[in-house]
TrEMBL record:
Pfam families linked to this entry: Sugar_tr
Regions crossing the membrane: 127-147, 154-174, 194-219, 231-253, 265-283
InterPro entries cross-referenced by the UniProt entry: MFS_dom, MFS_sugar_transport-like, MFS_trans_sf, Myo-inositol_Transporter, Sugar/inositol_transpt, Sugar_transporter_CS
Gene Ontology biological-process entries: myo-inositol import across plasma membrane
Family membership: Belongs to the major facilitator superfamily. Sugar transporter (TC 2.A.1.1) family.
Domain Major facilitator superfamily (MFS) profile residues, every copy: 1-287
PANTHER family: PROTON MYO-INOSITOL COTRANSPORTER
Topology of the protein relative to the lipid bilayer: Multi-pass membrane protein
Major location (coarse): membrane
Keywords, in A-Z order: Coiled coil, Membrane, Transmembrane, Transmembrane helix, Transport
Protein name: General substrate transporter
Length: 333
């Protein structure tokens, strides 16, 4: 069973052979010819002169002309991540999204779903847990088709409340499960209406999770950091994700025992509600903006109103101006 986990990892390892390197990285390493080949693939139909212009632009943008050693420059960039207001707000957004994603309790459910379903009386808890995992897969695929059309902020606000609602229903259902009068242990079968409601509530929870924070945490993280601090910023956000994952994985069963399942799922519902408030008051939709524009939006506030104002202005651009913007956005590659 453990070995099955090696299958997707092996497939990904094989696919990585065809994954192209970032043109920015290649230009920084002096491998201009390799960068040109990849740019020709990205900009299909482009002329050689256009590609040369792209390479020159990337070189100008990525070349670090600041005095000092690499170590001194790295220390300066790391410091700017916390000192420069726009960078600090970007870090708060990225780490906040990753924290919400984990503290919503999703991975605890994935890790211990078979244990949970066995507790409530399902005869084949592993098969039941696959229903939940399948829901996550399907809704994740759906998210890919709607995230750019609806927008990150709208989706996040429209789904986090659903995560909280699903967990509240789950907590209530656990409270009403039949118990042994002498021991107080849960004494139910998979056909019990409250056990079925627990399954339905977890499916609801996973649906909203996969549509929203499950994907947007990673997408949003990639859009907020300027180039010079992107490595540090994404590293801190990813560390937040795995640190929270470690905390949840090591405390979930203890919480189920000490707080009761009702208390544990109610606690996660409260955290999802706090995440929903975070999205409402702090998270702007930064898709479609250049890195320079993102820094401007986050320079004086979290930029919810400013991003909305700029997005309205984008809709009034001419076709030629939109084309130039699309080319500028491709420079994020």
């Amino acid at each position: 069973m453990v070995g099955i986990g090696a299958i997707p990892a092996g497939i990904q390892c094989i696919i990585l052979y065809w994954l192209p390197e970032s043109p920015r990285y290649l230009v920084r390493k002096g491998r201009d010819e390799a960068a040109r080949k990849i740019l020709f693939t990205i900009y299909s139909g482009a002329q050689a002169a256009d590609i040369e212009e792209k390479v020159a632009y990337i070189r100008e943008f990525t070349e670090d002309k600041r005095p000092g050693t690499k170590w001194e420059k790295a220390k300066k960039d790391f410091k700017s991540l916390y000192v420069l207001p726009s960078n600090l707000r970007a870090l708060i957004l990225a780490c906040g999204l990753q924290g919400i994603q984990q503290f919503s309790g999703f991975n605890s459910l994935m890790y211990f779903s078979a244990t949970v379903f066995k507790t409530v009386g399902f005869e084949n808890p592993t098969a039941v847990s696959l229903i939940v995992a399948g829901t996550n897969f399907i809704m994740t695929c759906i998210t890919f088709t709607i995230i750019d059309r609806i927008g990150r902020r709208r989706i996040l606000i429209g789904t986090l409340w659903g995560c909280s609602a699903g967990l509240i229903i789950c907590a209530i259902a656990f409270h009403y499960l039949p118990r042994d009068a002498s021991t107080g242990e849960i004494n139910a079968t998979g056909s019990n209406r409250w056990a079925i409601l627990i399954l339905v509530s977890q499916i609801i929870y996973v649906m909203f999770y996969a549509l929203g924070i499950g994907n947007i945490a990673w997408v949003g993280q990639s859009e907020v950091f300027p180039y010079n601090v992107r490595g540090f910023g994404t590293g801190m956000a990813t560390a937040t994700n795995w640190g929270a994952n470690l905390i949840l994985g090591s405390t979930f069963l203890t919480m189920m025992d000490r707080m009761t399942p009702t208390g544990a799922f109610g606690f996660y519902a409260g955290l999802c509600f706090l995440g929903w408030l975070f999205a409402i008051f702090f998270f702007p939709d930064l898709s479609g903006f250049t890195l320079e524009e993102v820094a401007e939006i986050l320079s004086s506030s979290f930029g919810i109103r400013e991003s909305r104002r700029r997005r309205k202005a984008l809709k009034q651009l001419s076709e030629e101006e939109r084309k130039r913007r699309e080319e500028a956005l491709m420079e994020k590659v």
